[in-house]
Amino acid sequence: MLKNMKTTGIANLFESARSNPWYYIQGAILDFTEDVVDRMSALGVSKSDLARKLECKPAYITKMLGGDTNFTLVSMVKVAMALDTEVRIHLQPKEASTYWIHEIKGKQDDEIQTEAWSSEASISPLKVDFQMRRVSDAFNHEECIPA
């Protein structure tokens, strides 16, 4: 009985949080900062390196990566450019899941690096079949990706 009351309380808490715009704002900030950290790691860029590229103090980078920054589109684009990336924003219906696939062509036409992920936290990891150009989640549900 007590466990059921706790579960109901937590469910109500999440439902209440989802009715507040700050829940989604913090989610967007978290998504962006995670992407920045992932890209920094992939490029071998330190906080000091990024600060130099952005012509700011390293303390700002620490604050930014800690989620304490109210980003503007301008600041997001500057960070993205410093990490040799672009910002892409889309609107997603609440009941939808988004699947992202990045194909990065190498120096030769047949050299392609592919990264894939989903907006759905419960669908992980995504598996990519390069030749069939299909994305499937861990449960082997498949969706065709237009070539």
The helix content, as a percent range, equals: 40-55%
The sequence of SSEs as H and E is: HHHHHEEEEE
Mean pLDDT across the residues is: 75
Q: What distance lies between the first and last C-alpha atoms, to the nearest angstrom?
A: 53 Å
Question: What is the total domain count?
Answer: 2
Protein model, in words:
- With 147 residues, the chain is an alpha+beta fold.
- The protein is built from five helices and five strands; from the N terminus they run αααααβββββ.
- The longest helix has 23 residues.
- It has two domains: 81 residues, 434 Repressor (Amino-terminal Domain); 46 residues, no CATH class.
- 6% of the residues are buried.
Question: Could you write a compact summary of the structure shown?
Answer:
The protein is of the alpha+beta class. It has helices at residues 2-18, 21-43, 47-54, 58-65, 73-82, and strands spanning 99-105, 112-118, 127-129, 134-136, 142-144.
Keywords:
147 residues; alpha+beta; 434 Repressor (Amino-terminal Domain); 2 domains
